[in-house]
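Holo prediction. Input below; ligand is SHN.
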Amino acid sequence: MERYTPIFVDISGKSCYVVGGGRVAERKIKGLLHAEAQIKVISPEVTPTLQQLHHDSRIQWLARSYRNGDLRGAFLVYAATDHSEVNTAVVQEAEDAGILVNDAISSEQSNFITPSVVRRGRLSIAISTAGAGPVAAAEIRATLEQQFGDEYETYIEFLYQMRMEVKARISSPGVRGKLLRRLTEMNVLEDIRTGQFEWWTEEQIGDWISHNQEDV
Ligand SMILES: C[C@@]1(CC(=O)O)c2cc3[nH]c(cc4nc(cc5[nH]c(cc(n2)[C@H]1CCC(=O)O)[C@@](C)(CC(=O)O)[C@@H]5CCC(=O)O)C(CC(=O)O)=C4CCC(=O)O)c(CCC(=O)O)c3CC(=O)O
Ligand SMILES: NC(=O)C1=CN([C@@H]2O[C@H](COP(=O)(O)OP(=O)(O)OC[C@H]3O[C@@H](n4cnc5c(N)ncnc54)[C@H](O)[C@@H]3O)[C@@H](O)[C@H]2O)C=CC1
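Structure of the complex:
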């Protein structure tokens, strides 16, 4: 059954709470940190890495067990303790308050799940098996990481900069679309792989746009 729809949610600056501070919580928190969320951990104990992140003021830490009412103000919550009854109480409070919640012990209780992710700058490739096999998801990630190497970070950044320029300079959506498609047909990726790529100057971008818009 296809219960899940993949979406990319902007959580930068949003309050994300994690109940529990073990290995699983740490992994979920690393994903949240990547997106620059405001993170609060509620857990009597946390891993050394989480202690360090707290010390560096990158996460908040409430050093005690979860209590009903703790989730006030949260946008999203991970229930990541090793006690299913605690996670269930967290899920209950979150659902009553309309907060997105993930139960690390029981995917059935969660209303969102965490995919395995390949990250290359602005490019994210998310993989889910709908909870059937997280390790299989991780294996597929490793395969995709080979296929989509670090060169994609530069490539996607180049496309982004070009897209911004094209959007700023060309008002016709038809011409814009054709120019942007033409960009992906160029050998930029190959140039990056072989070390021949150089960032274009504003002038070069302008010249490329003027030259190409004539015959699209
Ligand atoms: C449903 C989901 C909900 C969620 O957590 O969001 C979920 C649930 C559960 N995972 C369990 C176990 C393990 N999960 C991992 C690893 C990962 N788990 C992740 C995601 C998800 N796990 C979501 C579905 C993803 C999908 O759709 O495929 C990854 C991809 C992302 C991440 O965590 O960031 C990350 C790999 C990251 C990477 O390397 O890329 C490992 C391996 C390890 O820990 O090293 C094990 C041990 C081996 C095993 O048991 O298979 C258990 C049983 C717990 C128990 O036994 O009590 C449950 C509970 C259940 O099945 O209901
Ligand atoms: N969804 C996933 O990706 C995975 C989920 N799991 C499940 O997640 C559970 C947690 O795994 P780990 O992080 O490895 O366990 P762990 O034992 O390392 O961490 C548990 C954490 O929960 C905290 N905790 C316990 N009671 C609490 C309470 N009442 N309030 C707040 N915090 C509390 C503990 O202080 C500890 O920091 C496992 O029991 C397993 O069932 C396991 C592997 C992957």
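The CA atoms of residues 158 and 200 lie 9 Å apart. That is the main takeaway for now.
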